[in-house]
Amino acid sequence: MDRMITKLLYKSKEAFMTAIEIYNKPTLHYRAEGFSFFICNSWELMLKAYMIHKLGEDSIYYENNPNRTITLKRCISIVFANETSPLRLNLEKILELRNMSTIFVTEEYEFIYLPLFQSCIFNFIEKMKDFHDIDMTKIIPPNLFTRTLNINSINANEVKAKYPQEIANKIINANNYISTLTSQNNHTFATNIENYNHIANTKDKSILSINNEDRIKIIKELKDPNNTHKYNMRSCNNEINKRLKSLGINLKFNRYHFELFCEYYRIKENPKLCFIYKINSSPNYSYSIKTIDFIVDEIKKDPKNIIESLRENLKK
Questions:
Q1: For position 230, what pLDDT does the model report?
Q2: What angle do CA 136, 140, 144 make, to 5 degrees?
Q3: In angstroms, how far is the first alpha carbon of the chain from the final one?
Q4: Most exposed among 19, 128, 261, 312, judged by the fewest C-beta atoms under 10 Å?
Q5: Rounded to 5°, angle at Cα 23 from 19 and 26
Q6: Type and span of the H or E element at 286
């Protein structure tokens, strides 16, 4: 049994690495479909290894056909029994894409499903660690796990002009449906890592001169706080603790720790990290994914002493 689990996990890691390679190839057409094939394969192998360990080898075979293993959809329903959990919904949506991609392929699906892919990667890393104590961040560089998504990637009129009506309706309906599900679930279902670019025209903006006549304006980042700064302190702490756990760092990050970081590094003064809602007399704060990334990176440098070090430095 142990030998079979080891083999399944080896293949699962290989499939995951292939999915990440496809995910990071900008010149590859139809990355969404290719990624969905391999990420589903990696999940299926990993979940079956988990089921064998917990339920026995017979659990991955059909009762009336012991020579055939059950589908990924069945594995998901057994391991993640809660039908409404964002993780399960995420996997089921990507599985639908994989099944549909065998007969229906369009490049627009990359833009629709990329936020789901992003969460699916994070979810796989977390469950591989929880279920099998395998740290994927030691196998693949963490910087390869994220990709940015340009805002307004799907334009209904452009899609209608590009495809026959039936296909255009499929794309538009899929986009609307995924967007609705995203708004109803947390980052375990979908994660947007977005780039907002704007050419600065005003004279007070920095300008890089190429020659005496031509100029290139420095790109200015525009922020919609509902998208770019959507984490409150509690959700930041939850995500930080999740990442620390996946990294094997034994630190229960709490509200006090978060405030230490905010005070020492002046996080609330940095618009890239924090957005201040000044509606009432008491301001409300929301934070970007960069805040979470920054705090985790700082903790990784000295996990045993970072909190005490911040505390002592603030006393000076």
A1: 85
A2: 115
A3: 58
A4: 312
A5: 145
A6: strand 284-287
Co-location of 76 and 176 in the same domain? yes
Confidence at 1, pLDDT banded by 50, 70, 90: low
pLDDT of res. 105: 56
> What amino acid occupies position 278?
K
Mean pLDDT on 150-156: 58
268 with 188, same domain? no
Give the chain's domain count: 3
- Please, what is the Cα angle at 274 between 220 and 311, to 5 degrees? 130
Q: Say if residues 146 and 114 touch (Cβ distance below 8 Å).
A: no
How far apart are alpha carbons 188 and 114 in whole angstroms? 13
Q: What is the pLDDT of residue 101?
A: 62
**What does the block give as tokens for 269?**
């003064």
Same domain, 19 and 155: yes
* Chain mean pLDDT for the chain: 81
Do 249 and 134 fall into the same domain?
A: no
Name the DSSP letter for residue 274. E
pLDDT of 294 higher than 80: yes
Asked whether residue 151 falls in the same domain as residue 254, the answer is no
- Domain containing residue 158: 2-194
